[in-house]
Amino acid sequence: MSEINPVIARVTQRVIEKSRGSRGAYLELMEREADRAPDHSQVSCSNLAHAFAGALEDQAAMKAGRGPNIGIVTSYNDMLSAHQPYGRYPERMKVYAREVGATAQVAGATPAMCDGVTQGEDGMELSLFSRDVIALATGVALSHAMYDGVALLGICDKIVPGLMIGALRFGHLPAIFVPSGPMPSGIANKEKQRVRQLYAEGKVGRNELLASEMGSYHSPGTCTFYGTANSNQMMMEMMGLHIPGSAFIQPGTKLRQALDRAAVHRLAALAGTRERTMAKCVDEKAIINAAIGLLATGGSTNHAIHIPAMARAAGVQFDWDDLSELSSVVPLVARVYPNGAGDVNHFHEAGGMGYLIGELLSEGLAHRDILTVWESDLSAYANEPGIDGEALVWREVGESGDTEMLRPASDPFQPDGGMRLVQGNLGRGCFKSSAVERERWNIEAPCRVFENQADVTAAFKAGELDRDVVVVVRFQGPRANGMPELHKLTPPLGVLQDRGYRVALVTDGRMSGASGKVPAAIHVTPEALGGGPLSKLRDGDVVRLCAATGELSTTADLAAREAAPDPSPPQGVGRELFSMFRSMADGAERGGSAMLATAGL
């Protein structure tokens, strides 16, 4: 058994030390919550009658208090392909609960918006704050205090972090995330990317583009590229919050149903105990493991925002210095589209999470000794699930089935992880190095400044960007407009790069977990609103971005300049309803959350 890598040990200890006060306060609160959890035999009969009235098949069991009651928090809707399978989950989960003398109820539902639908549209400006709404909805669902364990049904971008943040405030209960799995693979990812770039150049029309996109996103299940949704599932495995091996089993399969059943049975077994509550499972080492998995797989840049936010909800302080230092020693062992050719189904077939976790543990690159929802430490997650007759079993993974997709940690694609901190007189930002060819890690060029992505597209079409250029898109931070993803910029910037120009993007906004190829400093903080450094840049200023040295700077004398005026608050598509969230949000490195900021977490 390998000793933990000394850099990982040092970062972990630093996180423990700086979290000592906040983590201690959180655990004390959870102990108090556990102590004051209501004994339902002492709760008002009127209260209980309200809670039991709708549970026709389980009323007798609930009235008699014959077993634990599991609360289901679901993010079902049938517009979002990843969450469409959840429509039938509650009725099946109730059956699984009865098999072991338990009951289950839908405690509540959360919104689940799709960034793929809102990309480039005004609705994207609600996306990041939907995480706060989901956390609040989870809190409302669990506030009835009728549950002995929690099943969290969610997969996609802000949904898993929102469920996590909300459920952690009820961390005295055991909780398990229950994924529904990815859709089958569609057209090759390189073909999808090719058609997108042809459309950006005006060489194919909307009919060809739509046919290509529907060949990729074609049925229920998670989108198969390795974006934020699938990075979520990887992290839940790395933190031990799934039934082992659950992440990438497709919907509607016998194995998928067996894993779902095991999740309900396990929750019933944990209910009423304090050994493996969510508060105890999600500790400093679990957060570090999530970050390690993100780096080892070249996962979504969105998690540079989500991991600090989830950590705060558990009293853990984690920042980009921690992420960057971990990146210096965590090797890149997976290349999944957009970092490679194959998708998450190919990743799973090559060995998937079982292989990844086994490799990281064998090289001392992940914490084995975390408390998981299963019956042991993280070692159980180094196997893959299967069906033997009617039984759910786990077996050894063996060697990688595709070394172009998944490699040993001793022979990785690159020796360090997928993200780097860049900083300088323009602020601090994240650079996803795993998706960018090394010869493009360094660019120094005059900038062109924009305040929305539509203007970038217009300038591209007009030929104004046909040169070496650093495209700066500012006033895209949490307080300006909710920090939307700017994924629509990927095709035009990719075209410029393919034409031979040296191109980079610098923004206080986000990029999609599916973005890659073009060097970018994203999540730049302080944001431009309110006089951040980006607000003082002008067209033609020379900007330097270098992942190798960690530099994000300009030669311009920003101190001598006035900031550009702040834009008017956005309105329409419900954006005015989120003005409170924007005004109270903290910076990207803290998680870009209004809720956590105002809660003092």
Task: Describe the structure using short key phrases.
single chain, 601 residues, alpha/beta, Glucose Oxidase, domain 1, 3 domains, eight-stranded mixed sheet, four-stranded parallel sheet, 23 helices, 14 strands
Polypeptide structure, described:
The structure is a single chain. The protein folds into three domains: 6-36 and 67-184 and 219-396, no CATH class; 185-218, no CATH class; 420-567, IlvD/EDD C-terminal domain-like (Glucose Oxidase, domain 1). 37% of the residues lie in helices and 13% in strands. The chain contains 23 helices and 14 strands. The chain has helices spanning 6-18, 20-35, 45-52, 59-64, 89-99, 115-118, 127-142, 159-168, 189-200, 206-216, 228-238, 254-270, 278-281, 284-297, 303-313, 320-327, 344-349, 352-362, 453-461, 478-481, 490-498, 579-584, 594-598, and strands spanning 69-74, 103-109, 149-153, 175-177, 383-388, 391-396, 420-424, 427-431, 442-450, 469-473, 503-507, 520-525, 542-546, 551-554. It has an eight-stranded mixed β-sheet. Strands 2-1-3-4 form a four-stranded parallel β-sheet, sandwiched between helices. The longest helix is centred in the middle third of the chain and has 17 residues, at 254-270. It is globular and about 75 Å long. It starts with 5 loop residues before the first helix and ends with a helix.
Structural class, from secondary structure content?
alpha/beta
Mean pLDDT metric? 93
* DSSP E strands, number: 14
Can you summarize the main beta sheet?
8 strands, mixed
Q: List segments where confidence is low: pLDDT < 50 over at least 5 consecutive residues.
A: none
Q: What general form does the structure show?
A: globular
What percentage of the residues does DSSP assign to strands (E)? 5-15%
Can you list the strand order of the major beta sheet?
A: 7-8-12-11-10-9-13-14
Continuous helix count: 23
Kindly report how far apart the N and C termini lie: 37 Å
* Total tally of structural domains: 3
User: Compute the gyration radius: what is it?
Assistant: 24 Å
Helix-residue proportion:
25-40%
